[in-house]
């Protein structure tokens, strides 16, 4: 089976960027050559990671990066999205760690020499533990430490980076990490979710100021994840429930950036649950961005519930990926068109999209037709949105290779390349070969 799009699709143009994505903690390993981070601590806490694993070795990318660059090149992609480990490049006293910086400059130089553009995210969840010990994202000072890190690393990397994203998915850092505690640092207090989210968004704005100054020619922005919310029925109460959920999980992160305001539901919160907003914060958060990164995997369905206002329904008979997420590509088009109609957006990049599947390696091959179908359907959905007038300039498959899937450990495989964690052998899956073939047949 092949990937194909209508012959007049704008995604066939070489102007459209195709890439693959990873993140530092999920692939790098080499934990001894960086500062400990909140995910090291979380992994060392009993019962937090389903298979009891950690990120100490992961895909050993710090050792194997040259092979991995060859692998990326062999896929024929235009760009590689990676994240920088804060604790690999900044020492505890705030100075640059030259060894860590060299790791990234060598990697980037090698990618650039092969014509592969670098899309770098500065924060993909691996907060140095010593900063968490001072309150982490609940402490306003962390936003300023992030600005300082962004300032130093963007100067050090120079013009190697084509595009900087400040944060990846602040929803996950704040809600999963501080409000319900299923991600690091594992705190579970309702008010913490909104308070940490505000400091993350402030960090984004403060970092944008220095990145735009240091790298005015790079494409600079933020990556947000969205799980579009649908009502379980046509009943007004269910529709209202899905709207509240949407404000809480999705609009909460984009509206401050695009419109300088939190959604109206903030007015319904108890005072103690509101974020600590200081004068000028919303202006810092809402300064212009050059691009918006969107990560999409699935949708969620809600019904009204008197206790919590909304309650998620498990769509039992719906097709799902191996991580239990419903496969519903129409929600991707709906999301993109609705964001386009709601906000005045900069160009969009799909910075993550992909599926965990129960892969089997047989005779050195992984025949992951289920993942391939997922990609086909979701590329169609992106194409539909473009046809409806949404400006989308790129698409990154999540992920280049199987890796540490956070609280699921190594049990869930999202790669288009299979990783044997015993031998570290990489095998391009059928979906990866199809992605490569699709990319290679684009017009010059
Ligand atoms: O693996 C994660 C990634 O780190 C962030 N976005 C979602 C992916 C799949 O869960």
Low-confidence stretches: none
Bound molecules: 5-hydroxymethyl-3,4-dihydroxypiperidine
Number of helical segments? 14
Tell me the CATH superfamily. Answer: Glycosidases
Largest sheet: 8 strands, parallel, barrel
Structural class comes to: alpha/beta
Task: Count the domains.
Answer: 1
Name the beta content range.
15-25%
Determine Rg (CA atoms, Å). 21 Å
Instruction: Estimate the global geometry from the Cα principal axes.
Output: globular
- Per CATH, the architecture is Alpha-Beta Barrel
Q: CATH topology, which one?
A: TIM Barrel
Order of helices and strands: EHHHEHHEHHEHHEEHHEEEHEEEHEEEH
Spatial separation of the terminal alpha carbons: 24 Å
Share of helix, binned: 25-40%
What is the typical, i.e. mean, pLDDT?
A: 98
Give the SSE map.
Layout: E1 17-21, H1 24-27, H2 38-43, H3 61-74, E2 79-83, H4 86-89, H5 98-113, E3 117-123, H6 129-132, H7 141-157, E4 163-168, H8 170-179, H9 190-214, E5 219-226, E6 229-231, H10 236-259, H11 281-285, E7 291-296, E8 300-305, E9 309-313, H12 330-342, E10 348-352, E11 361-362, E12 365-366, H13 369-387, E13 392-398, E14 417-420, E15 425-428, H14 430-440
Helix pairs in contact: 3-5, 7-9, 8-9, 12-13, 13-14
Bound molecules: 5-hydroxymethyl-3,4-dihydroxypiperidine (IFM).
5-hydroxymethyl-3,4-dihydroxypiperidine (IFM) binds at residues 23, 26, 169, 295, 352, 398, 405, 414.
